Each structure stands twice: as C-alpha cells, then as structure tokens.
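[job 0417] fold request received: NADP-dependent 3-hydroxy acid dehydrogenase YdfG
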Amino acid sequence: MTDSPVTLITGGSSGIGAAAARLLLDRGHRVAVTGRNRDRLDRFTGSCERPEAVLGLTADAADHDAMHSVVETALKRFGRLDAVVANAGSATPDSVIDGDPTRWHEMVLTNVLGPALLIRHSMEALRATRGRIVLVGSVAGFIHTPGNLYGATKWAMTGLAENTRRAVTEHGVGVTLIAPGRADTDFWETLGGRPEGLLLTPEQVAESIVWAICQPPGVDVNTVVVRPIGQPV
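[job 0417] inference complete; emitting structure tokens
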C-alpha cells in the first residue's frame, strides 16, 4: 500500500475527475483530489471504498499558493507523486463578439493558468518518480467554434501539452493530452443544457485518462482524442 502509485487530480470531486479517481482506486492506486466545494469533496471521499487511500483538498486550481500547498500536502500524506491530472475547468456559452467579458476571467485562469500551475508545482516530484502529466483538453482545442473563447482556452491547453512534453521528456516524465468530445457532465449546465445525441459518460473518458497513466515505463502517449459515436465535429 505504501508503495502504490499516487495521482493528484484537480477538479476531482465530480464528473470526469471523480470517475478517474474511482477507477484508479479500484486499481490499487492512491489518489488526491482537489475541488473548491468542501461539502462536495467530503461527499466524494466519504463514498470511496478505500477512504484511507484518498485525500480531498480544497483549492482553486488557478491559485498559485493553493496549488503549491496541494502538492506539498499530497506528498506529506502519501510520500510520493506519480501522476497529475489537470482536469479542473469551466466554460461560458457566449462569444468574444458580443459576450459578457466579466464572465471570462475565471474561465481563462482556470483553463489555462491552472494546468500550468499544476505542472510547475508538481515537476520536482514527478522527476523523482519519472511520472506522468495528463491534461484534460477538448475536441474544441482542435476544431474552431466561431467566437468561442472556451475553445481558445482549450487550444491553449493543446499547445501547453506539447511544449511541456518537449521540456520534460529528457527527465523521463510523460505528457498526455486527453481531448474528449461531448460528455455527459455538469459542464453543460452553464451552457444552457445538454446537446442532443450520444454523449460520452465520465467513466468512458476516465478510462482514457487511466490508460495513459498506466502505460508501461518508457512509453509516452501524447494525444488522445475521444468522441462519442455520431459526434459530427
């Protein structure tokens, strides 16, 4: 147990992050998850079958000091860090042409600064374990949607994944971008409702995340785009 791998997941108390945490726990890993809502974190950790192997940490993924503290606390609790998953994110439904700029600040910080902070603060520990970084992007980071700033933040994450890979591969650290298509999560509540058609489940996206984390030593899978059958873009 004390030698089992440890993964830190931002935005891990619900949706895709929680599904990935449960799947890792089922495979014998230890997991730290972050979220901004303490009650939601407590409900998640309390529902896990191995509560001793999961740590819930209240933090804003876009806060420098908070993310430094999260990494240090996870290391103190578990003694190592083998993977990090930048999953925390938010969206607005409007356009840069005629949208509300007051809604963009939090989204841009969470979606772009947040993953960069996680990489920065976890890198020393990941070098020690020759670990892995997983960034949860989006199909929107490959296909433009007219005027969509959320999509632009995901294009930024697509770029972050590759420039991070080039910076850390010599240290034995792997970097994977997981880019899901439409998934059945609370994400759609901020966008006016779920789209029609088949959606990926959080568990299906989580399978790709865990697959990337569990690759054999020496294997670096870099980009995985996963859509539900029938998604046209």
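[job 0417] notes: The longest helix spans residues 104-129. The chain has a mean pLDDT of 94.
[job 0417] exit 0
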